[in-house]
Amino acid sequence: MDITDRVYTAGMTDEEVDDRLREHETGVLSLARDGDAYAIPVAYGYDGGSLRFRLGDDGDSQKIAYADATEEACFLAYDYTASDDSWSVIARGTLRRVPDGVWESTPADLDEWYAPLRVFDEAIEETELVGYELDIDAITGRRTAR
Q1: Buried b (16+ CB within 10 A) or exposed e, 11-40
Q2: Residues 94, 49: Cα–Cα separation, whole Å
Q3: Which among 20, 33, 52, 145 would be 20 to 30 A from 68, CA to CA?
Q4: Greater pLDDT, 8 or 142
């Protein structure tokens, strides 16, 4: 393979990683069950030591089944605005379902933490919100070198 275009990247500082995760709203959560991988786009909240997700469950959710079966998950947040301006953060850690009532309890509180929940083929009123938290064990960030 002949690769002609290259852009150098550099590691991000802890402060840069923290800033990017606080400023950004969406990413990809990678899950696994019985050797099968499953990745989903998600909105997230970040508090400095963990990532929080709220997933919609219509009672027959493949993502909920995978999330409940996943012990260690991987999360990717990234942005690519131009070939010379990009960044990515990858976090790995233990994923756990958060018991009801532990997090913010009002819709207004939830809306401050997360981008609007995207519902596809399910009826909104039949979709339950389920909280998950990824306790970060390892995190790395890279950005386009300047």
Answers
A1: ebeeebbbebbeebeebebbbbeeeeebee
A2: 12
A3: 20
A4: 142
- The more confidently predicted of residues 134 and 104 is 134
Phi/psi of residue 60, nearest 5 degrees: -140, 45
Residue 104 neighbours by CB distance under 10 Å: 16
Q: Which segment of 12-26, 63-77, 96-110, 112-126 scores lowest on mean pLDDT? A: 112-126
- AA letter at 12: M
Listed by start position, the domains of the chain span 9-144
CATH class of this structure's domain 9-144: mainly beta
CA distance 86 to 143: 6
